[in-house]
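Supplementary material to the annual report.
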Amino acid sequence: VPAFFSRVFDLNYAAIGLVAALTGGAAVGVGLVAGGFIADFLGARRASWYALVPAAGLAIATPVYIAAFLQGDWLMTAVLLGLAGFFQYLSFGPTLGVIQNVVTDHRRATATALVYVALNVVALGGGALFTGWLIDRFADLNLAHSGHEGPSFRLLCPGGQALASAAEATRALCRSTLAQSSRQGILVTLLFYAWAAVHYVLGSMGLERQMRGTARSEV
Amino acid sequence: MTSAPEVSRASSDIDGQRGPYRYAPGSYRYGVALLLMLAYTLNSADRTLIAIIGQPLKMDLELSDTQLGALVGAAFAALYAISGIPIARLAERFNRVNILFSVMTVWSGLTALCGAATGFTQLLLLRMGVGLGEAGCSPAAHSLLCDYFEPRRRATALSIYSCGISLGYILSAIAGSYVAMHFGWRAACVAIGAPGVGIALLVKWFVKEPRPAGSAAPGASLAQELAELASVARTILLRWPTGNLVLGLTLSSFASQGV
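Predicted assembly:
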């Protein structure tokens, strides 16, 4: 996100850090606590809410994220990002709660470690790589599409910027291509939220039975 | 380590031999949740600090982008992945408060020590140590909180704890970058790392291990440990409801890391 702000809106890094930290961080924190609370409240009646609250949060977050990245105004982008972060993180607490509620006492730490290791390796390792790769592909595609003939984006604009000696037109081309490609790469990645929502809906089926099964074996 | 220990633990529950803190209502357990949230705040702050101070660090120590990437991501993630499950297994058997105290001291102390690093190799080793310590935090904390909070309040308790992720990010982005800007990246390491040692002592003093003596998981051979791990993996990943939930969580985290 900070890279996105600087590429598309030309904000300086200090301002970006502050904007990203405040909107992202605060909204995510509120969303986290709200998600756990809402799910416990509704889940007391029907356990499937532990999956449906996250599903709803992610389903709402997807279009809000997309709207945020299509905005032309950086303040509006920041506000929408905060809102989307809130909805996205409604899913976190309920998921952790369910994981703890389907294992017995002596397996709780192990269960969390297993999920967190998977998350770290798959998501934290792969997520940034995937989007970066996607942005590079879009950059080449956009460059070819703009009628430019010759070297690939990486050669024309090493590190995302044209060489200092390059013509003004080339520098502008690098800038606009990078901004456009960042948007496109991010938009595709955002569809993963919708995909995640689908799995939460699927997971709600039979959730009550699995949780009840564990509770019975425990008492 | 299949179902036998669970049965004996369950029967002791029926006999009323729960730990004195188990599911105890009242404000103490929320104090525990908030204190562990603070611990997790520092966990998240220490983790993200290196990205915040990346630019001055890169210039000062003349690091390449690849080296910086290794410090921010790979070194940390590798150790996190390796040590998470073994420390969690220890948390099933031994006093979780002591484990939390130890891992907090390790990751906080090593983050502060990053401020004294003179080159890439030193920083790399320190960051690996930070990852090793940090991996031990959430498994022990989740397990502990679930002894304080009954099943229908666990999502709330775990979400209060997890709030530390965003608080830590805010802390390192604001305090970390402020200190780095005015006093340099070395001071930022100390400012974000050192308070963790104090919080570790506070955790040790305030939080009571709710698990009654003698009810921890028994020791086991390596083969038994692996069998137990496989069994947990089957319960969580191969059952339809929770398998889908974990997949959903992974996909959404994947997307947020990319964006």
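The radius of gyration of chain B is 20 Å.
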